[in-house]
Specification:
The protein is mostly helical. The protein has one domain (4-233). The protein is 68% helix and 0% strand. It is built from 8 helices and no strands. 29% of the residues are buried.
């Protein structure tokens, strides 16, 4: 059963992500100029996109895990985490080798690779996950003030003050949005309101649904395509 509302919102988020990365490349790689007001807007827009993706990931994890046996769930999760980690390391290698000024040490794909494994600890704690999430948020706030001596702790927001990653989503505090999404899905299931997300497919929603169902593919392809586009025209 596909909840087309989730796919549609994810598809809209992908479009937002593409727009933000087009802006980022234009400003920081090709040295373009925009208005100061637009710059402020985009700085607020970027975390909203990240929050939406992570929230939907937690929400979708509940939907996909509730009717699976533990073995099937474990196997699927480890396979998905392995694929994501390979992609994440590839992104790190490529950016550090060819685009060092815009390098990505621990981006959102790295985050999802670890979050996939962490999520296994919260399968049966749906009604409490919002409280676990608050704890993770508070830990993240504390860790952000620490000055890490090396990069091994950067996934937990304990990084050197001079550390830079063009895309940085540490587990603390971002995992709390995942847990909020999972908890939201749990309570909607408890109150039998998930059916409101069963939208009917129509001509207007079809493109968003398609993009939402292939979000990872769009994520991997859109930056190289945008880079080629800007290289040709700027």
């Amino acid at each position: 059963m596909r909840y087309l509302a989730i796919d549609s919102i994810r598809g809209l988020s992908v479009i937002g992500m593409i727009c933000y990365h087009a802006y980022y490349l234009f400003i920081h790689v090709f040295w373009g100029k925009t208005s100061q007001l637009f710059d402020v807007y985009m700085r607020w827009f970027q975390p909203i996109i990240g929050i939406t993706f992570i929230f939907l990931a937690g929400f979708s994890f509940f939907l996909s895990s509730r009717n699976k046996t533990l073995w099937i769930l474990l196997r699927g999760t480890f396979i998905r985490a392995g694929i994501l980690w390979i992609l994440a390391l590839t992104i790190t290698y490529v950016t550090y080798t060819f685009f060092y000024e815009q390098r990505i040490g621990f981006g959102i794909i790295h985050f999802f690779a670890i979050a996939s494994l962490l999520s296994l600890w919260f399968i049966r704690t749906g009604k409490w996950n919002i409280f676990f999430g608050i704890g993770i948020l508070l830990l993240g706030t504390y860790f952000s003030e620490l000055d890490g001596k090396n990069l091994w702790l950067m996934p937990f927001w304990i990084a050197p003050k001079v550390y830079f990653s063009a895309d940085y989503y540490p587990v603390f505090p971002w995992f709390w949005y995942f847990l909020i999404g999972h908890s939201c899905a749990y309570w909607m299931n408890q109150f039998n309101t998930l059916s409101c997300l069963l939208w009917k497919k129509n001509l207007i929603l079809s493109p968003l649904i398609f993009i939402g169902q292939h979000a990872l593919l769009f994520y991997l392809l859109h930056v190289p395509i945008l880079y080629i586009f800007f290289s040709l025209f700027f």
